[in-house]
Amino acid sequence: ETGVTQTPRHLVMGMTNKKSLKCEQHLGHNAMYWYKQSAKKPLELMFVYSLEERVENNSVPSRFSPECPNSSHLFLHLHTLQPEDSALYLCASSPGLAGVYEQYFGPGTRLTVT
Amino acid sequence: SQQGEEDPQALSIQEGENATMNCSYKTSINNLQWYRQNSGRGLVHLILIRSNEREKHSGRLRVTLDTSKKSSSLLITASRAADTASYFCATDAASSSGYALNFGKGTSLLVTP
């Protein structure tokens, strides 16, 4: 397993619920990312944080709200989701903010919206 | 936007055979990376090749990069059942800040005993 953990691993929520996904990295990295992985689609970058500052918001609907309280923790707050938001949500971290760095991924949260 | 595109979408081979996967991309890059994903799990980094490199090896993995054709290949030699996974290439666009990796849809590899 990598040094990136995600909780919960599985989540089922109704469209009116509010829930949060948590990501923690133990690698001392400065950059953290949220990705969405849907079946038969490329991995979609959602948010990028560098030193707790958001540097990328890839046209993600406002029902997804990220939070990065420190460089080790990243949250994704979810509210009033749609069934098409069902997917595997992956968190990743990297030493720095550049494509020259490999990204370390967590195991993901499998989200089902009913 | 999607940058890398893997080919084939699915590949089935027997243990001991070699597996070759290809990746094509559209714009100039600084670096290209390959990742592996076991079913329903996170991605694991395999290898990074820079735009000024043509070939790189890591154990049973061999990656080539042809910037003139905007393509890369990943070769897994003497495959094992444990190599069964999806394989993704990821590129960073040279024209942007370079930190956003663009992933393809991946090649699903099945290695049968």
Descriptive keywords:
A: mainly beta; 7-stranded mixed beta sheet; 4-stranded antiparallel beta sheet; 11 strands; globular; B: 113 residues; mainly beta; 6-stranded mixed beta sheet; 0% helix
Short synopsis of the structure:
Chain A contains no helices and eleven strands. Chain A is mostly beta strands and 114 residues long.
What does this structure look like?
The complex is a heterodimer of chains A (114) and B (113). The mean pLDDT of chain A is 92. By secondary structure, chain A is mostly beta strands. In chain A, the strands form two sheets. In chain A, strands 2, 4, 5, 6, 9, 10 and 11 form a seven-stranded mixed beta sheet that branches. A four-stranded antiparallel beta sheet of chain A has the order 1-3-8-7, with no helix packed on it. In chain A, 0% of the residues lie in helices and 56% in strands. Chain B is an all-beta fold. Chain B has no helices and eleven strands. Chain B has strands at 5-7, 10-14, 19-24, 29-37, 43-50, 55-58, 61-66, 71-76, 85-93, 101-103, 107-112. In chain B, strands 2, 4, 5, 9, 10 and 11 form a six-stranded mixed beta sheet that branches. Chain B has a five-stranded antiparallel beta sheet with strand order 1-3-8-7-6, with no helix packed on it. The radius of gyration of chain B is 13 Å and the shape is globular. Chain A binds chain B through residues 2, 4, 6, 31, 40-43, 45, 48, 50, 55-56, 58, 88, 90, 92, 97-100, 102-108, 110, and chain B through 2, 29-31, 33, 35, 40-45, 48, 50, 88, 91-92, 97-106.
Break the fold down into its secondary structure elements and pairings.
The complex is a heterodimer of chains A (114) and B (113).
Chain A: E1 4-7, E2 10-13, E3 18-25, E4 31-37, E5 44-50, E6 53-57, E7 64-70, E8 73-79, E9 87-94, E10 104-105, E11 109-113
Parallel strand pairs in A: 2-11
Antiparallel strand pairs in A: 1-3, 3-8, 4-5, 4-9, 5-6, 7-8, 9-10, 9-11
Chain B: E1 5-7, E2 10-14, E3 19-24, E4 29-37, E5 43-50, E6 55-58, E7 61-66, E8 71-76, E9 85-93, E10 101-103, E11 107-112
Parallel strand pairs in B: 2-11
Antiparallel strand pairs in B: 1-3, 3-8, 4-5, 4-9, 6-7, 7-8, 9-10, 9-11
